[in-house]
Structure formats: C-alpha cells, structure tokens
Amino acid sequence: MAVTLIWGSTFPLVKSLVAYFDPMVLIATRFTVAAILMALGMLGRLRRLDRHTLIAGAVLGGFLFSGYVLQTVGLKYTTASKAGFITGLSVVMVPFLSKLILNRPPRRAALIGAALAALGLGSMTMEPGSSLVPQVGDMLVLLCALGFALHIVFVGRYAPVMDVPLLVLVQVATTAVIGIAYTAVTGQLGPVFRASELGIRSWLSILYLGAFATAGAFFVQNAAQRVTSPTRVAIILATEPIFSAIFAWLWLGESLGRKGVIGALLILVGMLIAELEVGFKKGTVEGL
Description:
Elements: H1 2-17, H2 23-41, H3 51-74, H4 80-87, H5 90-102, H6 108-125, H7 136-158, H8 164-185, H9 189-193, H10 200-224, H11 230-237, H12 240-252, H13 257-275, E1 276-279, E2 284-287
Antiparallel strand pairs: 1-2
Helix pairs in contact: 1-4, 1-10, 1-12, 2-8, 2-10, 3-7, 3-8, 4-7, 4-12, 5-6, 5-7, 5-11, 6-13, 7-11, 8-10
C-alpha cells in the first residue's frame, strides 16, 4: 500500500515538472538517478548478474520505458487526477494479458469489470461537444496503462525465478539507457547532467522520483511478486488512482468535476470487480 501512495503522489509532481523539463529529459534523469543509487547499494551483488537476468530485465525495462514515456507526455495534455485513474486501468488489463501470456483465463468478473471501466473512461475523457473523440493526453495515458499492465504480467513470470534486486536494477538501467540515448540523438543530453541548470526544488523532486518512486517502489513490487500473483498485485495497485486524485487536489487544486467523479467511481468499481471474486460458498475472497 505504501508503494501505491508513493506512486499516487508522483502524478502531480511529474505534472509540475513537465512544465519545465522535456518529458524524455525528465525520464532519463529520473531513471539514471535510480540506477546509480541501486548500483551503489549492490556492488557486491553485480558479479552474480547473468545473461538470463539481463534479457528479462531488458524486456521489463522496455515496458517500463514505454509506460513512463506515454504517461509523462500525456500529463502535458491532461490533468494529474484523470491520468491517475486512466493509468489504473492497467489493473483491468492484467487478467486478460495473463490469459494471453501466462495462460490464466479471465473469469466473468473480469469482463464485467472491464465493461464498467470502459464506461468510466468514456465519462472521464469525453469533453462536452467532442462527440466520441477523446483527448490526446487521455489516450496517451491509456496506452501507458497497457505498458504497465504488460510489466506487471511479465514481472510475475520472471521475478519468482530470478534475483529480484538485480532484475530491478537491469529494468531501471534499461529505461535510463534508452532515455539517455534518445536525448543524445535529439541533442538534449547536456541538460540531463548539468546540475547548474536545476534548482534545489527540482533536484529534490527528481531524487524523490528516483530513490523512492522508482528504485524503492519497483524493488518492493518485484519482491512481492515472488510470492503472489500478478492479479493480486494489481488489486493493491487499484488504490493508486485514489492517492493521485488526493495529491492532485492538495498540490495542484485539481478537481474531477461531476462527470469525472462518476467516471472515476465506475473505473474504481470496475477495477475491484475485475480483480476480486467473492466466494460466498467458501466465505473467502479469491483473486482472479
């Protein structure tokens, strides 16, 4: 739950930072900071890094990079509170992707939850008079949710059989390398490492994103998925949009409005239905 609180707090923070940073520069800086901190904390462990961990970490890093790029760019064109709930749709996607990738078929509850979440998404993202054309930022964040859903599913596949700290390090480092490569090609590499161009508040924000919201949070997620399923992890992550909306209201003064609140509730209910099935006969709650 602490991880979802931290991730929820990043939406208004990133929303504020992208007003001053190019999204790719922000991603490259954030993940470079996280990779350096993690590498320094496990110098003695690096000798155990093998080819399988490198490949798995690179795959996971690719999903992370796509998710964060789409989310960060999307936050330039939508609100932090809406982005939090739309990103939360990754929870609905996990059962279906688990069927395709891990051969774990979704139950009827997942279908009902997906339908409710789709209605909620429409309520939140369709502006008055815009017909059925959603906003660009909302669609970018929706695609980011797919990237994060794939990340959750593949972590469930790799984490139980690999060294978790090394797996997380490779994921984070892969994202950092892709981000740095892009900024180098586009001529933006300099600002990534020129500390003189960053104020103390910006550095503190980036350190928070790198140390807590990236290195620490992904370590906890990967460690948890050694002993639980991707779907159960997704249940916990369903609370992230709530925290993002709270922080967006506190820090940015954002509000969802009537349609937004209705849409958010539909998405939240859809996520919970998709991930929970009440076993009335057994008196238990089972994950999909």
